[in-house]
Amino acid sequence: MGTQTYAHETITDDKGRELVVKVENLQKYFGRNHVLKGIDLEVYKGEVLVLIGPSGSGKSTFLRCLNFLEDPTSGEIRVGDVHVTCGSHGGKFKKDVHEIRMKCGMVFQEFNLFPHKDATENVTEGPILVKGVKKEEAVRKAQELLTKVGLGERMDFFPSQLSGGQKQRVAIARAMAMDPVLMLFDEPTSALDPELIGEVLKVMKELAEGGMTMIVVSHEMGFSRDVADRVVYMDDGYFIEQGPPSEVFFHPKDERTRRFLRHILPEKEPEHAKELGILEVDQELPDPDADPLQHEPGAALSQDNLHDTALPDIPLAQGPSGETPLPPGDEKL
Amino acid sequence: MHKRHVFVSVALFAALLALAVASLTPMALAAASPSPAAEQGTPVVTGTIPNPEDPRGLKGWTGDQVQVNFDPNGAELDLAQCKLFVAEIKEGDTERIYNEQQVTEPPRIIPAVSRATSTLQFSWEDAYPEGDYAFKVDLVTTEGVTVTYEWDFASTGSAGSGSLVNFQVMKDWFWFIARGGVVTVELTVISILFACILALFGSLGRLSKKMTFKQAWDRYQSWGYMWRMVLGRIPYWIATFYTSLFRGTPLLLQIIFIYLAIPEVIKTLGLPDSYNPPAFWSGVAALSLNYGAYLTEVFRAGIQAVPKGQNEAAWAIGLSGWQTQRRIILPQAFKIVIPAVGNDFIALIKDTSLVSVITVEELLRRSQLAGAATFSFMSTLLVAAAWYWALTIFFSFWQAKLETRMARDKAREKEKGKAK
Questions:
Q1: Is the pTM of the predicted complex or chain greater than 0.80?
Q2: Which of B317, B324, B413, B418 to mutate to test the interface with A (most CBs of A within 10 A)?
Q3: CA-based nearest residue in chain B for residue A29
């Protein structure tokens, strides 16, 4: 893959897996707004990492910093064997950013397919322009990938002719066409109709089973439980808690994680919410419209911020029509 | 595949355009600029009134004055020495018997908005009756060079009816004015092409500003970065200055400025007159620059209307900034701006008439010439108006076609999606 500026020795973890991503003390400011407050992360080959957290917690920003769609203010990012010191500038910085972008595939919430190109052209655009792959070769590979994501029938369709789920699968194929070492998913199912979510998650699951390293921002608890190796709870610009899904979801250590899950789980995973005893707590809330975090004890840490950022998530805990969270025993969902 | 169709039609259009420009431009140039063979200091006659080009004779000629248009070519006329001779042509005459025309006042130069043409006018008391005449004029320069120019002119035939709208005049001068229409279309098409090119670079320049200097300083605190940023800001400054200047001054001023002020610059630089921009290309330059400035803003809006996610998706698969613009953003932006460019094209057809003031013989200029020759401006200007209107309707029709076609493409794509 071209000339490499850095020839680091391969770093492996105790299971012998290769280090794919290493982030050290990553900081990001939007003007005066401190969004990422020093993030450290290591991801090894084949790992699937799921990022959860309230909106405004910096999940998407963190993901977008990894391939420099947002320019991080400071910190170190290493993807594969390319290492970038954030906050610098100049030709070498640009070149390294380009290298990293070639190594990262990204899937967006809003698909962002190129509307003037059909599915195959969407997929071949990167390999042909960036890697200089011959057109026939690129088309052959695109057809292979599109067949793999279940769109073998629709390879000459334009994005306007595809459903949301199909678009997102084309987007996954487009990202995969660059042979990335890392796939980033930024809420890939949030813009989809509920009945289309499954087909996208299925493709993602297959990718994970194929050994792809993935970082996923998603609140699809079922997917996280089945596929994720590690779940990270992020809040207020910090990684609050991380661990296997069984730990983070069902035995959260931090109070903030627990409170967040209390909003998310009843809707997404009523069974487990009950197991956790979370529903009982919700039931005690006298008024569903009241802010449940208002007088929460033991939330001394950044109470103000939590208050602000968690507020928009309250409707999540309610049904689409604003009904109260499910009472215990009601398993209609 | 519809994509190939688009490509073929664009190629066809370009070929037709090239053909039209190649075949017609010499004519426009010839009409607008003096013959380059003329020696410095020797005036060249470019046209006369009465005009022998009039196929049926000049029925409106009053018979008591003659005008000679000429390119002074650096010379100054000795007006007292310039003479006009008139000969009456009778059936079976083999030679012209010229008599010097006695004039009531010395011939004079009529001021005109043109640097390449002057008009010498002779006038006298007793008008000639209708008939066939031959004219001969001697132009004598202060240097003693004499240029003799002869022409025949027939005023027989049906005289104008004298009504307000003279259909005979309209009929007789129709094609003379129509050839001006060709120049009008040439001006429009060439100018809109150049304007679009200018607008493309102008809009990219306008959009090249990503960060303020203060933000950059807060971010990097590096003089090297600031210096590169100053260099990188130059396209933005140029584009901003350009749009501001050409949107802030009248188009008519720009046209006259390029035609009359640039030659002064050329003279000051000590370059020969042959470097002066011809009237036709002065007009094209002014129209392109002016419309380019307006289209710059249209293109800028078009590029900004492409969702930001398109940029991000392109960057995420590793496309460079320029690849992203060329392959992803601009194709989508062009589709967005087509209706606006169509509107400006239609407006430009009519604004080319301003170029008539610098002697480019397009529709309006030709209808004015015809009007001056026949003393029936009502008729000739109506012909010009009809031509403008027809051109506008014609191009509006194709613009509408193009827009519905684009809409249909979209609908067909949807249809296809349902079928499978």
A1: no
A2: B317
A3: B219
